[in-house]
């Protein structure tokens, strides 16, 4: 039977660990600002998290850092992440002079970021085009690289055939081109036009259209003048017939190359990176394409955390399950880390109960007067009703659920969690993808889920909804 509403398991805290909670709001630390370059360009940056090690994130496109930052939030629980919008992208200065839009300037900007934040050496996490920028930086400043994580980097040498439209059918390509024309003719609502266009572009970056709905990143989050500036693509022309494969031998720092197996970038080009770098590891993630951190978050985040701890990622990480990665020391770490670890453990327990059909035990983790606020239905109040609700969900097709905790806030006597969910049927087909926010209260020394709110990403009915033609077909 087809499901017409979303289903989500709220996060439940039945904590055996005592967590100190006070009136001050505790959440991931963040700050924003600008860095000035020598040629008077302002580079917008955002810092997330507060960890002993710092990762500078180099985005692809050229789009902006916002398309990455939301989906990489779990890393901020243990590390300091510095995102920056490259020149002529996002909220950085609009640059139309092609003399200021080239690979050399991008390499200089990365060095400017290093100096501004007083980083002796860089730990880089680079995606797509950010990979080649980082590669050029590394061959120019090999002594200033501590480590690199390259996520589906574009090839280290020119000549590879790449066409992200290969995953689009003819109708989608037609509509995409129509939307591109509407977007680039400066419409009244440029933000909506941007979403209409890039919602279709994004389909080419995922294994299937439905997986696009797992993405929280927003490629349109920035100055529309930057998005509409056709000169921003000049960085590719500036590369010429590039080939840094031989120069990469100078980079002695450890490098992790993460490759989605179903990406339109040929896997052999990732192998070329791996063969050119003397101290690299190539980690292939099946059932993922250009955004493996969205497609297969368990494999991705386990591999990254392992690499950062100087361990070699292995195939066991491809079988990892759960709502997030818990590191040794989290239970005695920051207040945020303690709460997060507890949430993840209980989420995993709850998923196990629901996936084996133990509705009453799952409902017992909710507060006695807990409320579920599902879309398209009245509030579900109390444990008996909650047990019946999840049982009904299973009758209607829910066979298993996967959760990913993204963020958490601690405020007074409340915990507020948010994240992603995915629901599958017995054939392991995706039947729902969505997001949630869950509110917990503390009862004596026990956290219980008080209010559970969730909604699907497959259907929208708001004034800024994704167009009807993007309603997804079954895989």
The CATH homologous superfamily of the domain at 30-164 and 231-319: Alpha/Beta hydrolase fold, catalytic domain
User: Which strand order does the major sheet show?
Assistant: 1-2-4-3-5-6-7-8
Proportion of residues in β-strands: 15-25%
CATH class annotation of the domain at 30-164 and 231-319:
Alpha Beta
- How many runs of DSSP E, i.e. beta strands? 14
The major beta sheet can be summarized as: 8 strands, mixed
State Rg: 23 Å
Low-confidence stretches: 1-22, 461-475
Shape: globular
Q: SS-based structural class? A: alpha/beta
- Name the CATH architecture of the domain at 30-164 and 231-319: 3-Layer(aba) Sandwich
What is the N-to-C succession of helices and strands?
A: EEEHEHEHEHHHHEHEHHHHEEHEEEE
Description:
By secondary structure, the protein is of the alpha/beta class. It has a domain of 224 residues: Alpha/Beta hydrolase fold, catalytic domain (Rossmann fold, 3-Layer(aba) Sandwich). Helices cover 28% and strands 23% of the residues. The protein is built from 13 helices and 14 strands. The strands form two sheets. The protein has an eight-stranded mixed β-sheet with strand order 1-2-4-3-5-6-7-8, sandwiched between helices. Strands 10-9-14-13-12-11 form a six-stranded mixed β-sheet, covered by helices on one side. It is globular, with a radius of gyration of 23 Å. It starts with 29 loop residues before the first strand and ends in a 19-residue tail after the last strand. The relative contact order is 0.16. The N terminus and C terminus are likely disordered.
């Amino acid at each position: 039977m087809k499901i017409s509403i979303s289903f989500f398991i709220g996060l439940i805290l039945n904590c055996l660990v005592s967590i100190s909670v006070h009136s001050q709001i505790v959440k991931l630390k963040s700050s924003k600002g600008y860095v000035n370059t020598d040629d008077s360009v302002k580079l917008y940056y955002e810092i997330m998290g507060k960890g002993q090690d710092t990762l500078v994130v180099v985005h692809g496109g050229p789009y902006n850092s916002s398309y990455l930052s939301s989906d990489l939030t779990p890393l901020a629980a243990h590390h300091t992440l510095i995102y920056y919008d490259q020149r002529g992208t996002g909220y950085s200065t609009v640059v139309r002079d092609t003399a200021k839009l080239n690979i050399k300037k991008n390499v200089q900007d990365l060095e400017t970021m290093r100096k501004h934040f007083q980083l002796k050496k860089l730990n880089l996490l680079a995606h797509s085009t950010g990979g080649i920028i980082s590669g050029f930086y590394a061959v120019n400043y090999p002594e200033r690289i501590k480590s690199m994580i390259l996520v589906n980097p574009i090839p280290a040498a020119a000549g590879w055939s790449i066409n992200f439209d290969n995953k689009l059918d003819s109708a989608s390509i037609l509509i995409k081109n129509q939307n591109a024309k509407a977007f680039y003719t400066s419409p009244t609502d440029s933000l909506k036009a941007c979403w209409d266009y890039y919602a279709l572009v994004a389909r080419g970056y995922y294994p299937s259209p439905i997986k696009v709905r797992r993405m929280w990143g927003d490629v349109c989050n920035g100055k529309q003048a930057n998005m509409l500036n056709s000169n921003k693509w000049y960085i590719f022309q500036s590369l010429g017939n590039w080939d840094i494969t031989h120069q990469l031998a100078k980079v002695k720092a450890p490098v992790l190359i993460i490759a989605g197996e179903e990406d339109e970038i040929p896997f052999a080009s990732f192998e070329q990176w791996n063969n050119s770098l003397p101290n690299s590891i190539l980690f292939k993630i099946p059932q993922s394409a250009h955004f493996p951190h969205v497609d297969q978050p368990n494999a991705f985040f386990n591999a990254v955390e392992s690499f950062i701890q100087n361990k070699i990622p292995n195939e066991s990480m491809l079988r990892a399950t759960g709502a997030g990665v818990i590191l040794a020391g989290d239970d005695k770490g920051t207040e945020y880390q303690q709460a997060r670890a507890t949430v993840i453990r209980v989420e995993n327990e709850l998923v196990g109960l629901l996936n084996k059909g133990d509705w009453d035990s799952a409902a017992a983790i909710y507060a006695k007067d807990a409320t579920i606020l599902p879309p398209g239905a009245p509030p579900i109040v109390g444990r008996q009703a909650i047990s019946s609700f999840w049982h009904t969900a299973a009758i209607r097709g829910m066979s298993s659920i996967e959760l990913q905790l993204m963020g958490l806030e601690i405020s007074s006597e409340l915990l507020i969690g948010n994240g992603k969910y995915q629901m599958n049927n017995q054939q392991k087909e995706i039947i729902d993808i969505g997001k949630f926010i869950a509110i917990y209260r503390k009862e004596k020394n026990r956290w219980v889920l008080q209010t559970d709110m969730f909604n699907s990403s497959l259907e929208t009915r708001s004034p800024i909804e994704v167009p009807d033609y993007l309603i997804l077909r079954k895989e």
